[in-house]
TrEMBL record:
This is Myelin protein zero like 3. One of its GO terms (cellular component) is plasma membrane. It comes from Astatotilapia calliptera. Residues 1-30 form the signal peptide. It holds the Pfam family V-set. Keywords: Disulfide bond, Glycoprotein, Immunoglobulin domain, Membrane, Signal, Transmembrane, Transmembrane helix. PANTHER family: MYELIN P0 RELATED (PTHR13869), MYELIN PROTEIN ZERO-LIKE PROTEIN 3 (PTHR13869:SF20). Residues 27-146 form the Ig-like domain.
Length: 252
């Protein structure tokens, strides 16, 4: 009677283990999505929003990728790109025509690029990847995009052109001014070099404008008498007859 009991107990143990294995939850596969926490760009740049994922299951046609955006000012997130076997970028709205799919799901890449970034694009971008049966784990990741105004940059070629058009005319004008300043001095020096130290310009001897050499033939006694009455003397001298001049010369 003992042998049948042993066989029955052993059978019960096997059945119990079988039921435990069937009823126990099977291990669930997981997926991990990773994105950079922050991305900085200037206005007008093309920005790459990276998104990579690792999955225990090979990506299949059932894998999906969703990109959403939440403005910096707040509000509900807005999905703007969906991938399922192929990408469906937005054709209208804030990102219409400015999103390009750059991902390769077979390599665990779900990245996109944003063309012509604007200040209104500042906000949080979220990448969500699902690859059944990997539906658990970290399926989403967030990236904060900061777009700043572009700082004007000056290239070397621009600086060279500006210097050429500024310095060249300035140099030419400077040379012309220096030449005009030097030439009059040379002319004056040459004229002074040819004059005798005792040479006196006509009319400068008595300081009387319009005084000619003919009036130098006055009497000897009149050369030292000219004073405040010289104007009267000149008038009287002009009225004398020609023979008076010879008389004066004979007395000298």
């Amino acid at each position: 009677m003992r042998r049948p009991l042993r066989r029955t107990s052993a059978l019960n143990v096997v059945l119990l283990l079988y039921w435990l294995c069937c009823l126990a939850p099977s291990p669930v596969s997981s997926i991990t999505v990773t994105t950079p926490p922050e991305v900085h760009a200037s206005k007008g740049d093309t920005v790459t929003l990276s998104c990579s994922f690792t999955s225990t299951s090979r990506p299949t046609s059932r894998m999906t990728v969703d990109w959403s955006y939440r403005p910096q000012s707040g509000g509900p997130p807005m999905m703007f790109l969906h991938f399922s076997s192929r990408a469906y970028p937005p054709t209208e709205g804030q990102f219409g025509g400015r999103i390009r799919w750059q991902g390769t799901p077979a390599r665990g890449d779900a990245s996109i690029s944003l063309i012509n970034a604007t200040l209104n694009d500042n906000g949080t971008f979220t990448c969500t990847v699902r690859n059944p049966p990997d539906v658990h784990g970290s399926t989403t990741s967030h990236t904060v995009l900061t777009v700043t105004p572009r700082v004007p940059s000056i290239r070397f070629s621009d600086v060279a052109v500006l210097l050429f058009f500024i310095l060249l005319p300035s140099a030419v004008i400077t040379l012309i001014l220096i030449g005009r300043m030097m030439c009059p001095k040379k002319e004056r020096n040459q004229s002074k070099a040819h004059r005798s130290p005792i040479e006196v310009t006509e009319g400068d001897e008595y300081g009387i404008p319009g005084y000619t050499h003919k009036e130098d033939r006055a009497k000897c006694r009149d050369l030292y008498v000219m004073d405040s009455d010289e104007e009267y003397y000149l008038k009287d001298f002009k009225k004398r007859p020609p023979e008076a001049e010879g008389y004066a010369d004979s007395h000298c």
